[in-house]
Amino acid sequence: MNRISKLCAAGLKVCAALLVVAAQAVPQQAPPPQRQGADMGAPELLLLSPSEAVTKVSEPFFTVAVMAVSVVPAVSIRFKLSNSGEGWAESVSTSQNLPVTRRITLTRGENRLTMTASNVKGESEPTTRTIFYEPRMSKNDDLLFLGIGVSRYRERSLHLAFPARDAQELAALFGTQEKSGVFDNVNSLLVPDEKASRHELINAFRWLKDKAGEADDVALVYIAGHFARGARGGEYYFLSYEHRPDSDLEINDLSVETIMRLLAGVRGRVILLIEQGGGVGKSDEMLAHDVVRSAHERFAVCMASPGSEPPVENAPPRERGFLAQAVIEGLRGPADRSGDGTVDVDELQNWLRSWGRSRPQARGISFSCSPNPSAKSFPIYSNRGIK
């Protein structure tokens, strides 16, 4: 019996030794780090939005949402924004487990937002988000200028001094408006003299329709030359370069009704400027009346035409037609009644009405303008920095 006991005792000692060796072979894991002192009860900050570490935005404002998980009811959340500007910091007192949102104003470029939550027990680890703000490139309207001026006709007795040159000068003036703050792009088409056949006039209006891609684009149409009233029905026509006195106006010329119909298909806001360079037959103030009436609620129209008063005798020589002269003068400053550096369509119309009444040399010329059909006036020219 003693011998058996001795053997068992020896076996137990061997097993114990083996267990010690096995325990020493197992790698020891370090215990998880423990917050020291007051940090044992510090809150945890949960970021509800944004979820991404880096966010890109095109607006100068950004909303962040956080929540503090805390065993202590009273919690304070601190927001700190660092950027190229003055930055921003704010502490918000709140209750445990309640979402808190803040709308943050950004500066262009990188904005680094750091957030922490704290209570009487301690402070959470900081949470950081980066927001890149790059403003979206704003798009201004486009301007389309169609200048039709016929100074030279196949029928030489109809020649005029100014229409073709005035159309060219107005195209150059409005060409300065590209990237002006009013318009992004300016596209111009000139149809002078022998190019102004009936066929090419119709193509010019089709060009305008094709180019006007947005409802806010501005289509400015300047038409200068002779108009005549047809023998039948009293319809008015714009005389093309190919006009023949002995032919039906419908063959070579373009009716005002056709012009209005072509303009009605233009997508955008249409401004129609017409200078009647003397009439053939009985083309008088009735033309202006018909044009303004047919454009009602569709286009903004201003027209200069021979009136009922006799013209001024011995008037000084002119460099331009009356309408072109008034437009150019007004756009260079005086028409800007608001003083904001731009001329809108209402200001231009008001200027043209007053110009015709205040210039002795314009006696005998009638200026007629239709009301702007848009609910709100819109700028057509910026004279900032333009001499």
Largest sheet, strands/sense/barrel:
8 strands, mixed
Treating each run of at least 4 consecutive H or I residues as one helix, how many helices? 8
Low-confidence segments: 18-23, 29-38
Could you tell me the mean pLDDT?
Answer: 83
Indicate the percent of residues in helices.
25-40%
The number of domains is 2
Label the structural class. alpha/beta
C-alpha geometry: elongated
CATH architecture grouping of the largest domain: 3-Layer(aba) Sandwich
Alpha-carbon Rg, integer: 40 Å
Indicate the CATH topology of the largest domain: Rossmann fold
Which secondary structure elements does this structure contain, and how are they paired or packed?
Layout: H1 2-25, E1 44-49, E2 54-57, E3 61-69, E4 74-82, E5 88-95, E6 99-105, E7 109-119, E8 122-123, E9 127-133, E10 141-149, H2 163-175, E11 183-192, H3 198-211, E12 218-229, E13 236-238, H4 249-252, E14 254-255, H5 256-264, E15 269-280, H6 285-294, E16 300-306, H7 322-331, E17 342-344, H8 345-358, E18 365-369, E19 379-382
Parallel strand pairs: 2-9, 10-11, 10-12, 12-15, 15-16
Antiparallel strand pairs: 1-3, 3-6, 4-5, 4-7, 7-8, 7-9, 12-13, 13-14, 16-18, 17-19
Helix pairs in contact: 7-8
Could you give a short description of this structure?
The chain is of the alpha/beta class and 387 residues long. The chain has helices spanning 2-25, 163-175, 198-211, 249-252, 256-264, 285-294, 322-331, 345-358; strands at 44-49, 54-57, 61-69, 74-82, 88-95, 99-105, 109-119, 122-123, 127-133, 141-149, 183-192, 218-229, 236-238, 254-255, 269-280, 300-306, 342-344, 365-369, 379-382. The protein folds into 2 domains: 39-133, Sandwich (Immunoglobulin-like); 141-382, Rossmann fold (3-Layer(aba) Sandwich), CATH 3.40.50.
